[in-house]
Amino acid sequence: MPSAPHRPSLWRFWLFLVVCSGILWLGGMNARAIIGNDLLKPGTLEFEEFLSPMTEREIFRLLSLTSLLVIGSYTVLLISSILFLFSSPYSMKEHGWLMMSAILFFVFVPVEVFTMYLDGKMIYQEFFTTADNDVFRELFARRMGALKGAPIVALLCYYTIIGLVVFQPFRKKRESP
């Protein structure tokens, strides 16, 4: 009796998108943090005085470009992670690591949406207006002080998700009959 042709599971495609967009998103967030760090005095939210206006403008342009990557990859990550959870053969009841990862990711969606809103304003100012550095400084300061550190806590949770996925704790073992 011939076996049925092998069809790839759709959940694997969603998982592939989750992994790829997650890498781009976290990488873009780290790149944006490194770029933005050049604008501030170490350990403060005060702008460096020694930067020329043209240098500062270029840093804001790079922040806008990396924000485009971050917003796009986060959107793909959010949609593909929802579709992965619905189509996955893994039960959250049996795979506690998956449930914890989902909770840590989805609890910070409002934080990410708000910070993306601020990033979107910076992108708009960069590509569709002729705003000066003062406008970008104000937007950058609002972004850095947004939600009193919740984006930093979110970032730490996202790195925790990586550890949960790698080590897969809280996994129920199936009982044999």
As a percent range, the share of helical residues equals over 70%
Count of DSSP E strands?
A: 0
Mean pLDDT: 90
Low-pLDDT segments:
none
Note the main sheet: none
Question: How does this structure look, described?
Answer:
The chain is mainly α and 177 residues long. It has one domain (10-167). The chain contains 6 helices and no strands. It has helices at 10-37, 53-87, 96-106, 109-128, 133-144, 150-167. α3 runs antiparallel to α6 (150-167). The longest helix is centred in the middle third of the chain and has 35 residues, at 53-87.
Quick synopsis:
With 177 residues, this protein is mainly alpha-helical. It has 6 helices and no strands. Helix content is 70%, strand content 0%.
Q: What key attributes describe this structure?
A:
177 residues, mainly alpha, elongated
Question: What does the secondary structure layout of this molecule look like, with pairings?
Answer:
Layout: H1 10-37, H2 53-87, H3 96-106, H4 109-128, H5 133-144, H6 150-167
Helix pairs in contact: 1-2, 2-4, 3-6, 4-5
